[in-house]
Amino acid sequence: MKFKSITVAILLLATGPAVAGPIGYAICQTAGCNGIAVACYSAAGFTFGVAPPAAPPAIIACNAALGACMAACAAVALGPTP
After folding, report:
1. Mean pLDDT of residues grouped by 10 in the chain (82 residues)?
2. Whether the Cβ atoms of residue 2 and residue 42 lie closer than 8 Å to each other
3. Given 29, 53, 63, 81, which is the most exposed site by the fewest CB atoms within 10 A?
């Protein structure tokens, strides 16, 4: 029984690269990216999630940083790892 478990574990590890998965991606987005976006909006004097009639340059910069952060999360959490 123990030999079978060890064999299965070795075969699973030898099948290819692993991924962090959707849970890792969600944690990265929520705890990392969205937290930074809230801080960025607050520093600019706005509330995250409340859209002013016209987006000032500070909000556009915060949104660009948020997008870059989420793209980085996707590349790290959903991509293959060696």
Report:
1. 47 49 80 87 86 84 89 79 58
2. no
3. 53
The domains of the chain are located at: 18-77
Both tokens assigned to 76 = 């790290």
Has this prediction a pTM greater than 0.90?
A: no
Token couple for 58: 């500070």
- The packing angle between helices 57-77 and 35-44, to 10°, is 170
Burial class (CB in 10 A: 0-12, 13-18, 19+), 38: middle
Asked if residues 35 and 69 have their Cβ atoms less than 8 Å apart, the reply is: no
